[in-house]
Amino acid sequence: MVTALSTVFFRPLPITTLTVRQFLDGRAVRVSGLIGLIPAAFALIYLLSPNGTRFETYTGQFLELFAPTVLPIAVLILATSAFGNELEDRTLPYLTLKPVSRLRIVLEKWLGVIVVGIPVVLFGQVATSVILAFSDGNATEQRYAADPRFADRIPELTTAIWPALAAGAVGVVMFGSIFLLLSLYIQRALLAGIFYAFVWESILGRYLSGIRLISVKQYVQSIFTRLVDNPDVRIDNPFQLGSALIVAAVTTVVCILLATRRLRRINLE
Amino acid sequence: MTTAPQPMPTPAPTQPTTQRYGEVFDRGYQHYEGERHGRAGSVWALTRFSMSRAMGLKKSWTAKVIPILVYVGAVMTAIIPVGIESFTGQNVMDYEDFFTVIFLLMGVFVATIAPEMLCGDRRENVLSLYFSRAITRLDYVLGKLLATALLTLTVSFVPAFILWLGRNLLADSPLQSLGDDFPNLLRIALAGILIAFYLGAGGLMIAAFTGRKAIAVAVTIVGFLVLETLANTLLAVVPERWENPVILLSPINTIDAFLTQLFPGGSTPESGEGFVSSSPFYPVEGYVAFLIGIVIVGVGVILSRYLPER
Amino acid sequence: MTASPSAPQIAPKTLPPDRRPSGAAKPDILQNAAPADGAPPAILVDGVSKWYGDVVAVSDVSFGIGPGVTALLGPNGAGKSTLLKMIAGLLGTSSGRVTVHGEPVRGQPSTYRRIGLVPEQEELYPFLTGREFVRLNARLQGVKDLDGATEWALGLVEMRDAADRRLKGFSKGMRQRIKVAAALVHDPQVLLMDEPLNGTDPVQRANLIELIQRIGDSGRTVLVSSHVLEEVERFAGNIVVIVNGKLAAAGDYRTIRDRIDTRPHLVRIRAGDPRRLAAALIGEPSTVSVEVDADGRIVAQTGEARSFYDAVTRLAQRHDIRLYEIQPADDSLNSVFAYLVER
């Protein structure tokens, strides 16, 4: 099926097709997918012992687990291997020694990361919501659900799912662009990315408020909370939806342009 | 000791003869008659080579950055309390706390060196070179585990030893203090060795499944952290009788519990950062057996990745 | 590919290294390498150097290469691969310039339409089949008839039957041939090959050599880096020798051999009465040394090849000695190469 699909997309987007097949052939997709499923594992624990409403649990895992840790690591593994594997295997000359603009090479690689990254990483969020849907929620939720007078008190789980997918998709695009660029500069891009995810986003981000301006997690969380539009789902100093989307777009464009510049100058030993 | 080559015969006569002269001499390829070190020697050679490669010796500085940073971090973590104690006279960090603090460094260290041990050999297709030599697959795995553990020991034992030594040398009667505190040195050694082999086996198990170092590094680090979070989450919901088995799911929690039992009178983890177990941990012998068991299982899992294909 | 009978041209007017004054101007490299119509040479390397910190990999190398097959030779670590990569645009030069048909290569993707590269490294995309890999290269080169070009290229290297297997399962020789097919699929004017004979068995090697010869004879420019000197001799009359990052020699290797006149030529002679002939040759001023080997052949050293050959025939006639064979013993690429490397 992969070969058949790739034949369809090959002619207009040969490098994207190649990248997608690289991902599917290697372990990166499986590892990213498993990491994306980590919230689903916690959802299973919720089934055993519901602690909080389903809505609270789902939004909590998105803000506290998915956005700061799962998302960057899962995207990191894919995005750094897009160029990283080519550099390691020394197959990049087969792409660069062609009358194809460097911008097109970067764009097609980026597209490959996005096309695979979005479903692979966000599948975990879908799985989490499905698992949570099997539960009736905690005692409070069940009580309110049983009384039609209070049915509106507990937000529906489904109202948080599409904001999660939308914000997650923006996160995949932003992180994908940044890590794609990073992999062209640093050999151990994956380690640098892990440092960024764990130290910068997860630890420093909690204590130094200024970091939020250059924290992808903050933008993803802001988009999520703005779309959910629930007073109980909030973060400190969220960005406006429009501002966050503009910054996401600008970041993506800048990273792609810098990656193009780097690809023009890189020495391939 | 080599045998002298056979003397060359006299040149053949110039007149053509019906039978041409010809002989083969073993001039270039002599049999080795010297000492052979045997199986232990080959395993040790593999261990030494693996250690130097993992530490980035003979490579550029970028290959050495992370090990150096880890060593600096671990040694500073030992020296700073000693310095503070020399001024204030107060014990600011006991040995259990020390291991807990440097556990992150140990995890990063193992995550960096374990993939270097195994992934390169698989990726560069040199396994056939190894296994065509006088080294069995088990020897290969044991050599790699020994290399990983010895390197991790330099982080899990040496800084703790520096802390122990510094603390006791600062005492009013250093010799007496060294003697009195000797049991703690044995505990530090036991903890250091077990942690080194346990983490080493875990890191190598992950690295055995891929040829890409980057993937192995990511899975190792994420694996440690995810297992810890999972264990802590489960501990909040499972009944009391399940708490000790759940602890064993997470390397961080397991070592934490082991250290608590090993160093009597040490501090328990703060609530909020980990968990507060309401039931006693397993006895220390139980954790020792578990850690050794994981190492044995780990060797088996790694070995299974190197068995010949049917 | 249609054959055009233009003779391969390369002969940079480079003085022998030991006669070039220090700090002299760069050799006139365009005279023979440039086509008669004034167009730039196919490959022009002009004052190119490459250094990494304090290590100089290539030092002020200049030459031009025209149509035909040219071999790039040098011992390990001489800078051949670095030079080839700079010509291909994979590496930037630290100084100097490289052009292909007058256009700079690096930073000009459009130039790559004219260039095909067969890199040395074996790694390919393991999940692609051979056919898919060649087709990918054709697609990226903008070839219109993808299927036709792919089949043609696979046919050139005799890989049609195995082309539907994944590259992961290819032997070394098969990978080499697929790489050659991928480099040829867009019918480039310039072909750069880094150790193309690596891993090939004798039959494949002979076929590849024949293919390289055909490509060169068709008027295309082929630059081959190789260590297999006995075979380079067969398909590349022109050589560029790099030693320690510097240009040691360039041109037809027999001409180079003649120019290395500080070193005596070795000549092997089979005659009816070798000892009598040897005794006569000793008295000749052009003879440096004479010996009779175990097979009864004369092995002589001479500083003046032409005079010596005249002397051999004259003396054989005078002494009524039958001559069966006169053969230069060191007029091979191997001996030229060895000499250049040892200097």
Structure write-up:
The complex is a heterotrimer of chains A (about 270), B (about 300) and C (about 350). Chain A has about 270 residues and is mostly helical. Chain A contains twelve helices and no strands. Chain A has helices spanning about 1-10, 15-25, 30-35, 40-50, 55-90, 95, 100-135, 140-145, 160-185, 190-205, 215-230, 240-265. The mean pLDDT of chain A is about 90. Chain B starts with about 35 loop residues before the first helix and ends in a 6-residue tail after the last helix. By secondary structure, chain C is of the alpha/beta class. In chain C, about 30% of the residues lie in helices and about 25% in strands. Chain C has helices spanning about 80-90, 130-140, 145-155, 170-185, 200-215, 230-235, 255-260, 275-280, 305-320, 335-340; strands spanning about 45-50, 55-65, 70-75, 95-100, 105, 115-120, 190-195, 220-225, 240-245, 245-250, 265-270, 285-290, 300, 325-330. In chain C, strands 6-7-8-3-9-10 form a six-stranded mixed sheet, with helices on both faces. In chain C, α2 packs across α3 (about 145-155) and α5 packs parallel to α6. Mean pLDDT of chain C is about 80; it is low at about 1-30. Chains in contact: A-B, A-C, B-C. The interface between A and C is medium-sized, with 27 and 29 residues.
List the helices and strands and how they pair.
The complex is a heterotrimer of chains A (269), B (310) and C (343).
Chain A: H1 2-10, H2 14-25, H3 28-36, H4 38-48, H5 54-89, H6 93-96, H7 102-133, H8 139-146, H9 158-185, H10 189-207, H11 216-228, H12 241-265
Helix pairs in contact in A: 1-2, 2-7, 3-5, 3-7, 4-5, 4-7, 5-7, 5-9, 5-10, 5-11, 7-9, 7-12, 9-11, 9-12, 11-12
Chain B: H1 38-54, H2 65-88, H3 95-123, H4 127-131, H5 137-156, H6 158-169, H7 174-180, H8 182-207, H9 213-237, H10 243-247, H11 251-262, H12 284-304
Chain C: E1 43-52, E2 55-65, E3 68-73, H1 80-88, E4 95-100, E5 103-104, E6 115-118, H2 130-140, H3 146-156, H4 172-184, E7 190-194, H5 202-217, E8 221-225, H6 229-235, E9 238-243, E10 246-252, H7 253-259, E11 265-271, H8 274-282, E12 287-292, E13 298-302, H9 305-318, E14 323-328, H10 333-342
Helix pairs in contact in C: 2-3, 2-4, 3-4, 5-6
